[in-house]
């Protein structure tokens, strides 16, 4: 079973972006972690990153059409993109929202997610491990 992991804006800069918040793992390293962790729980994983809202919406449409499960870190779009939420609402397989940091411990504008209400669940605050936990959760959901 294939799972698409979608990473939103600025996550391509992991490694050098605010390491005190997001750690020092690069996006390329994160891709490897996700591929390895996916294989451990029986999932084929593809990781994509875009800074472009329209691109992310297109990927979500494709996942809706192909009943592909999605793990998404919408990054800053989490907090205001109704367009991404509406695309996510069309998904036909589970969606898990992930965050590296715990947005609830940060600035108030990060406390709202417009995505969570259309996600099966949310995993936040475990660093890059949030993705591993999300892959395990997705695997459990899919084999249930
Ligand atoms: C983030 C949290 C968001 O508030 C922020 O805009 C990001 C990353 C996280 O993974 O912790 O870009 O989604």
Description:
The protein has 144 residues and is of the alpha/beta class. The protein has one domain (2-143): Rossmann fold. It has 5 helices and 5 strands. It has helices at 19-22, 27-40, 53-66, 82-89, 129-143, and strands at 2-7, 44-49, 70-73, 95-99, 121-124. It has a 5-stranded parallel beta sheet with strand order 2-1-3-4-5, with helices on both faces. Strand 3 (70-73), helix 4 and strand 4 (95-99) form a beta-alpha-beta unit. Helix 2 runs parallel beside helix 5 (129-143) and helix 3 (53-66) packs parallel to helix 4. The longest helix is centred in the C-terminal third of the chain and has 15 residues, at 129-143. It is globular, with a radius of gyration of 14 Å. The two termini are 13 Å apart. The mean pLDDT is 97. The chain binds 1,3,4-trihydroxy-5-OXO-cyclohexanecarboxylic acid (DQA). 1,3,4-trihydroxy-5-OXO-cyclohexanecarboxylic acid binds at residues 10, 73, 75-76, 78, 99-101, 103, 110.
Number of strands: 5
Spans of at least 5 consecutive residues whose pLDDT stays below 50 are none
Roughly what fraction of the amino acids lie in strands?
Answer: 15-25%
**Sequence of strands across the biggest β-sheet:** 2-1-3-4-5
Radius of gyration: 14 Å
Provide the domain count.
Answer: 1
Q: How does the overall form come out from the CA principal axes? A: globular
Distance between the termini: 13 Å
| Order of H and E elements | EHHEHEHEEH
Main beta-sheet strand count, sense and barrel state: 5 strands, parallel
At the third CATH level, what is the topology name? Answer: Rossmann fold
Question: What do the pLDDT scores average to?
Answer: 97
């Amino acid at each position: 079973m294939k799972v698409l992991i979608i990473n939103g804006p600025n996550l391509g800069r992991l490694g050098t972006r605010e390491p005190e918040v997001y750690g020092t793992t690069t996006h390329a390293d994160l891709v490897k972690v996700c591929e390895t962790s996916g294989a451990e729980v029986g999932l084929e994983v593809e990781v994509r990153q875009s800074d472009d809202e329209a691109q992310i919406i297109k990927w979500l449409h494709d996942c809706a059409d192909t009943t592909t499960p999605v793990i998404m870190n919408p990054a800053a779009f989490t907090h205001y993109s109704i367009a991404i939420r509406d695309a996510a609402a069309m998904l036909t397989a589970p969606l898990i929202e992930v965050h590296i940091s715990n947005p609830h411990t940060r600035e108030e504008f990060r406390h709202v997610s417009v995505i969570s209400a259309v996600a099966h669940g949310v995993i936040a605050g475990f660093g890059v491990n949030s993705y591993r936990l999300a892959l395990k959760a997705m695997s459990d959901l899919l084999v249930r």
